[in-house]
Write a structure and sequence with these properties.
InterPro entries: Peptidase_M50B-like (IPR049500). This protein has helices at residues 5-21, 29-49, 76-102, 106-124, 130-147, 150-170, 174-177, 183-191, 206-251, 262-270, and strands at residues 53-59, 65-70. With 294 residues, the protein is mainly alpha-helical. Strand 1 and strand 2 (65-70) form a beta hairpin. The two termini are 49 Å apart.
Length: 294
Amino acid sequence: MMSDKPLKFAIFLSLILSLVAFWDHQITSYLKDFVVLIHEICHASAALFTGGMVKGIALHGNEGGETIAIPASFRGSFILVVSAGYIGSSLVGGLLLKSGFSGHNARQTLILFGLLLITVSVLYSKLGELAYFTGIFWGLGILVTGMLGESISILALVFLGTSISLYSIYDLSDFADKLPETDAGILAYWMSGLSPEDLNAEETPVAVLFLGYLIASLWSLLSIGIIYYFLKGSLHEHRHEEDHTATNALDSFERFPGDLSPEAKLWLEKRGVDPESGVVIPPNLLFDLPPKDN
């Protein structure tokens, strides 16, 4: 099993550079559809978890998607559902990265993730539409990958987590270009007591713009903070594992019990043994051993 976290972080950084370099290439369009689907699934999940209903999930093929949902009756449910797209994507990406870096239950995690994609696609997307094919295609691919072994599952988790995390941050740039069309703009209209359909003016009200940029800034900070938290946690676990391994190595050495006379301490020191701690260093770790007494 792959347990070398520095190697995984190197793969993580390489993936970021590769995705950034080829982000506008045609081949990445399938990956973009996948991460947009994750974004929409997060909206749908928030609606269901807050007691609402989900009517359907659709992808438009232009890095855009739509979740048709009826939020629960309490006022805050709409805020949670709309916010779940970016925040939820960051959580999913961070969790997949954490699972990949830790290497624990990688196959099970990947298989469950694939089954989730297939289930959501069958239940909430229309047969023959882009969202349906995207969910089924990626779900089956992830499911099969999880059955191939632990090492490839770890690599797949790092790849998926990197892609989702990167896109969840990259997509935040839409706030600067077309705020009224984004989730932040929709929430700003709603909090202002307006809706995009009710506006006849071509220009967006200043109050909506101000509130939208405020919401977008908050989501951006939360998304980046979530991903940073998971990455930092993975690094901390790596250092803890190294310290724990070193401690176990010392604890495995044989310790000499009891008090020693000065002669015994001198005798042990000549043979590379610390008389105070009683740690017996294995022979293969000793250098320049003194000759034994005849």
